[in-house]
Amino acid sequence: MCGFCGFTGQVLNRDNLSREEVLREMAAQITHRGPDSEGYYLTGEGAQDSVAMGFRRLSIIDLEGGSQPLFNEDGTLVLMFNGEIYNYRPLRDELTEKGHVFATHTDSEVLLHGFEEWGEELLPRLRGMFAFAIWNTQEHSLFMARDYFGIKPMHYSLLPDGRLLWASEIKCLLRHPDFVKEFNEKALDGYLSFQYSVPRETFFKNVVCLRPAHCLWYRDGRVEERRYWEPAFHPDEEMTLEQAVEEIDRV
């Protein structure tokens, strides 16, 4: 279990705190998710197209080389990732054949090069549990995605002036000085029915839970969220009832 957080733009109500201090305070809220190491990435001095990203790591694969943030060869893409990609080895082999050069043995780097090669079409190729964010340093855009069943968490908040905050856990967002805490009464509908807030709703106004099997683009102060996968059932119409019973027994 790892965790990450970040925000774009400057910090207005900083109380004499630097952007880095705000980022570190946000990341400190998820130390329990990543006790092994931490990493930070900041650009600019708070311009609208600048970014601050923080990461807390629990080491599982490539203990020495798996630190984050992770960069592609030319430094144009910056990745923070929480989860595990089960089929990363065949994906890595395919990307290597296409000319990508890997610096580590992590599944994280497969996401980075896979996104560089296939863009959003990487997502249906993945088998695993994941939540990740990729910052494009040239386009000043952010791409985020969550696994098919929402095993790994992801939340975000778009501030009124177009700045974006995001994190594995909501408590990180609450530590940003410009986030205004307000109770979201709409979340009660789901809670009273299911005993939890139903995504996209959370118990805080203007905090959105990125839904399972959804991805998000952040560009020019705007968010575009869409579904990239949905379950489908394709029955084998040629199978007899007896064959179906035998198949159920087999599996």
Order of helices and strands: EHEEEEHHEEEEHHEEEH
CATH class: Alpha Beta
**Cα gyration radius (Å):** 20 Å
In the CATH hierarchy, the third-tier topology is known as: Glutamine Phosphoribosylpyrophosphate, subunit 1, domain 1
Please give the largest β-sheet: 6 strands, antiparallel
In the predicted model, the low-confidence regions spanning at least 5 consecutive residues are none
Could you estimate the helical fraction of the residues in percent? Answer: 10-25%
Shape: globular
Total domain count: 1
Mean pLDDT across residues? 91
Helix segment tally: 6
What is the fold's blueprint, element by element?
Blueprint: E1 3-8, H1 19-28, E2 37-42, E3 51-57, E4 70-71, E5 77-85, H2 88-97, H3 107-118, E6 128-136, E7 141-146, E8 155-158, E9 164-167, H4 170-174, H5 187-194, E10 208-209, E11 214-219, E12 222-227, H6 241-250
Antiparallel strand pairs: 1-3, 1-9, 2-3, 4-5, 5-6, 6-7, 7-11, 8-9, 8-10, 11-12
Helix pairs in contact: 2-3
